[in-house]
From TrEMBL:
<feature type="transmembrane region" description="Helical">
    <location>
        <begin position="174"/>
        <end position="200"/>
    </location>
</feature>
<feature type="transmembrane region" description="Helical">
    <location>
        <begin position="276"/>
        <end position="297"/>
    </location>
</feature>
<feature type="transmembrane region" description="Helical">
    <location>
        <begin position="141"/>
        <end position="162"/>
    </location>
</feature>
<feature type="transmembrane region" description="Helical">
    <location>
        <begin position="245"/>
        <end position="270"/>
    </location>
</feature>
<feature type="transmembrane region" description="Helical">
    <location>
        <begin position="116"/>
        <end position="135"/>
    </location>
</feature>
<keyword id="KW-1133">Transmembrane helix</keyword>
<dbReference type="Pfam" id="PF04087">
    <property type="entry name" value="DUF389"/>
</dbReference>
<protein>
    <submittedName>
        <fullName>Hydrophobic protein (TIGR00271 family)</fullName>
    </submittedName>
</protein>
<feature type="transmembrane region" description="Helical">
    <location>
        <begin position="220"/>
        <end position="238"/>
    </location>
</feature>
<keyword id="KW-0472">Membrane</keyword>
<keyword id="KW-0812">Transmembrane</keyword>
<dbReference type="InterPro" id="IPR005240">
    <property type="entry name" value="DUF389"/>
</dbReference>
Amino acid sequence: MLHLRIIAPTDRSTAVVDMLSADPAVTHVIVLPGAARSPRGDVVLCDVVREGADEVLAALRTLGVDKSGGVVGDGVDITLSASADRAARAAPGLGTDAVVWDEIAQKTGEETRLSATYLLLLTLATVIAGIAVLLDQPILIIGAMVVGPEFGPLAALSVALVRWRRQVVRRSVLALGVGFPIAIALTVLSTWALDGAGLIDKSMLLAERPVTDFIWRPDALSWVVGFLAGVAGMLSVTSNRSGSLVGVLISVTTVPAAANVAVALAYGVFPEAVGSVVQLLINLCAIVVAGVLTLLVQRLWWERVTARWSGAIRVGRFRLAPRRAAVAETEAAAPDRTAG
């Protein structure tokens, strides 16, 4: 469930409240007339189940609230409400399967900025992975996977390609296209510095490395792993269950490959560097393709789910599925079985 805080201009406040009140996926509607000061207007608070959030947000955009007022949404962790239960039953599908496009666009769009923090995290992850490659240490590889922030731009690129947001596509490609070369270059310098300090040497790279040797030997499984990681990562984002595990899942196919490129370049082992570059490109492409296909399948599947609730009726300028309304009316009219 999402909690929405809406600032509606006074001349549109009634239309907003009517729309929210008519939608059975919305509950806990509160109106605070004239409470907003910047921008000025009425404050409307409500909760909406995730299954119906896209329709509500689209209706608010149709009313122009996003331009002359504002809409802020937050996730709701705890809900003790019979009204909220009725809203969930009146909406199609399950909340974990629903894709709230504005939510994922906002969430992933924030990760496309080529910020100093992003570059620092990516560089630190690559340096750690570079040391892990030389030591053939899986524990350090895992540490690098946790630190790596690169799934943000990859997820944003997938969402932007599906919705065709060219500006976000450009920002995502810039974050990846500039971030990885900078991280690799700085990892080359760190490798030379550690070598100069006598902590590492070229023989460590040329030695047998059974744990990390696969990084610079791309094959069909490289694509499979990257693709599966992309599917898992995108599902976690759209279901609002992303966490550190997603970073681990995704980074295993990207940061270690970039680190191996840097270490191989530092020691002039160019065949290994080329293999690592191929591995990195395969993984990046596989993750983006998987993300795009996952979003397309989710969208098509959700359209099929909502089609069962089709034959919409009009409520003012908006359309509501009659089954949603019918279920809501039935639930409201039913006697409270918990009473007494």
